[in-house]
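Budget justification aside, the reviewers requested a transparent look at the raw inputs and outputs of the sequence design task funded under Objective 1. We therefore reproduce one unedited record. The lines immediately below are the C-alpha cells for a 461-residue chain.
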C-alpha cells in the first residue's frame, strides 16, 4: 500500500540544534578557531555606554565568514541562507528563533565601526596568529604574487583619461570617488606610476583599466598575497591598483608589516620576474638581508652575435670592466678638481673603452661594429642583481619555484571555490575589505583542514 507523509501535530518539541550539525561540518571545525570575545574588546571603545543595545558585531562577522567560506557572494542571499540553514544558525549562535539581521546592516557596520577600528585587519591577523600557534608557519621561505579581480565598473559608463581630473571626481560625489581622492598620494592606488590608464570609471575611479593575457581589457584591482610556503598560510594581503609598480611596492609593505606584527622575517622570498627590478632586489638584499629567488629583469643580452654585458668581467677593486680581449672600460679617466664631480649618484653608470684601443682590437667586428668604441652600462644595485643571478643557479632556487606555485593555487581557490571573480564593493576600501575577508576565509579553511583534531583535543582539555 502506498504510504502518505503526515506532519505530526505536536504542541511542544524537544529540538537540540547542536545534534543536527554534523561533526565533520566545515563550520563546526572553523568555529574552534574564531574568537568572538576579542572582536568585542576591539569594538568596545567605539560604542557608547548609553542607548539601546546594538546588533552583536560578532554575529555580523560570523555571517560574513559564512558568506566567504561558502562562496555566497550576495548579502541578501546570505541572510536568506542563514535564516534557513541549521548549520549556519548554529555557527551564528542564533538558535531556532533568533532573528537574522537585514542585509543593510552589513553596509552600516562596514562603513562605520569596522573601518574606524580596522576590525577586519585585526580578525585576519588573529587567524595568522592561530596558524602560528598550530605550527603551520615555518617563517623560512615566503612567496609573493598578485592576481587581478574585476571591479564593479562598466566600460560603457567610463570616460577618457584626458577628461578626468580631481574636480570631476568631486562633482561625481559618490563614496568611491571620495575614497579615490583620499588615496591619490597612496602608492598602492594613485602615486605608484605617473602614467594614466586609457579610461577611468566614474563609478570606481581607483579601478585600473587593464587586461590580462588573452583577454579583453577591463577595470580591475589586484589582490597581493604574501604566503608562507610550508602550508600555504596567507601571512598578509594587500589591495592595489592593477599596475606592476604598485604590486612590487605592496610586497615590501607586506614584508615590513609581517616583521613588525609577528616578528618574522623570511630567509628567502620567491616571486616572478615582475618583482625582479634593480630597486626591489637592492631593497631585499641590502636592506632586509633576504635571499631573492627572483628572475632578474635584464635587457643587456644582445641577439645580434656581438658581445653582451655578461661577456665583460667586473673588476670591483678598480671600478672597471675588462673586455674579452683584456682591455679596461672605465667610467672616468682623469681626476676632477671639483670633488663633487665623478661621485656615485646611485644612477646608471657608463664604462667606456678608449677609441684607439677599440679601433686596433681584432674583436671589434663582434664587439662594436657600428661604433667607434665600446661602452657597457652598470645598473643601480648591480651587486644585488648579480647575487640574484647566482641564486638562480642553485638547487634551492628550483625548490622555491615549485613552492611559489602555491600562491597560484590560492588564487585559483579564491576564484573557483570562493567565487571571488568580481568585486561587489567599490573603491579602495571596498577592495581592501573583500580581499581581507577572502584571506580570512582561506586561512580558516586551512586551519579546519590541517588542524581539526588538534583543536578538538585542545577544546576537550
Amino acid at each position: 500500500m502506498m504510504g502518505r507523509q503526515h506532519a505530526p501535530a505536536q504542541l511542544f518539541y524537544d529540538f537540540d540544534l547542536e545534534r543536527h550539525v554534523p561533526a565533520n561540518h566545515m563550520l563546526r571545525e572553523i568555529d574552534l578557531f574564531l574568537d568572538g570575545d576579542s572582536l568585542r574588546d576591539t569594538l568596545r571603545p567605539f560604542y557608547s555606554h548609553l542607548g539601546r543595545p546594538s546588533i552583536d558585531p560578532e554575529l555580523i562577522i560570523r555571517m560574513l565568514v559564512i558568506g566567504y567560506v561558502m562562496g555566497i557572494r550576495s548579502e541578501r542571499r546570505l541572510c536568506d541562507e542563514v535564516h534557513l540553514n541549521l548549520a549556519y544558525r548554529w555557527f551564528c549562535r542564533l538558535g531556532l528563533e533568533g532573528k537574522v539581521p537585514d542585509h543593510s546592516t552589513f553596509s552600516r557596520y562596514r562603513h562605520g565601526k569596522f573601518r574606524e577600528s580596522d576590525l577586519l585587519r585585526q580578525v585576519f591577523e588573529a587567524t595568522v596568529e592561530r596558524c602560528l600557534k598550530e605550527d603551520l608557519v615555518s617563517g623560512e621561505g615566503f612567496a609573493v604574487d598578485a592576481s587581478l579581480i574585476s571591479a564593479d565598473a562598466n566600460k560603457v559608463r567610463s570616460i577618457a583619461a584626458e577628461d578626468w581630473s580631481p574636480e570631476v571626481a568631486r562633482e561625481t560625489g559618490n563614496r568611491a570617488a571620495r575614497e579615490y581622492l583620499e588615496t591619490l598620494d597612496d602608492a598602492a592606488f594613485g602615486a605608484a606610476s605617473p602614467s594614466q590608464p586609457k579610461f577611468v570609471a566614474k563609478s570606481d575611479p581607483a579601478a585600473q583599466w587593464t587586461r590580462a593575457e588573452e583577454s579583453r581589457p577591463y577595470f580591475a584591482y589586484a589582490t597581493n598575497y604574501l604566503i608562507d610556503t610550508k602550508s600555504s598560510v596567507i601571512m598578509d594581503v594587500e589591495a592595489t591598483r592593477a599596475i606592476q609598480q604598485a604590486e612590487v611596492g605592496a610586497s615590501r609593505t607586506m614584508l615590513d608589516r609581517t616583521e613588525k606584527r609577528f616578528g618574522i622575517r623570511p630567509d628567502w622570498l620567491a616571486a616572478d620576474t615582475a618583482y625582479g627590478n634593480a630597486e626591489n632586489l637592492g631593497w631585499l638584499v641590502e636592506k632586509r638581508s633576504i635571499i631573492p629567488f627572483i628572475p632578474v629583469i635584464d635587457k643587456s643580452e644582445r641577439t645580434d652575435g656581438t658581445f653582451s654585458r655578461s661577456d665583460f668581467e667586473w673588476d670591483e677593486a678598480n671600478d672597471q670592466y675588462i673586455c674579452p680581449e683584456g682591455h679596461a672600460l672605465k667610467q672616468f679617466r682623469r681626476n676632477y678638481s671639483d670633488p663633487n664631480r665623478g661621485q656615485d649618484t646611485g644612477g646608471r653608470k657608463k664604462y667606456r673603452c678608449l677609441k684607439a684601443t677599440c679601433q686596433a682590437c681584432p674583436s671589434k667586428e663582434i664587439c662594436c661594429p657600428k661604433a667607434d668604441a665600446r661602452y657597457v652600462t652598470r645598473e643601480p644595485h648591480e651587486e644585488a642583481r648579480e647575487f640574484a643571478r647566482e641564486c638562480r643557479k642553485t638547487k634551492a632556487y628550483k625548490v622555491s619555484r615549485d613552492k611559489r606555485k602555491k600562491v597560484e593555487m590560492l588564487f585559483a581557490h579564491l576564484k573557483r571555490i570562493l567565487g571571488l571573480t568580481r568585486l561587489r564593493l567599490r573603491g579602495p576600501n571596498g577592495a581592501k575589505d573583500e580581499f581581507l575577508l577572502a584571506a580570512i576565509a582561506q586561512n580558516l579553511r586551512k586551519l579546519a583542514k590541517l588542524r581539526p583534531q588538534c583543536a578538538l583535543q585542545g577544546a576537550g582539555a
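The longest strand covers residues 218-228. The chain is about 40% helix and 15% strand. Computational costs for records of this kind are itemized in the attached budget.
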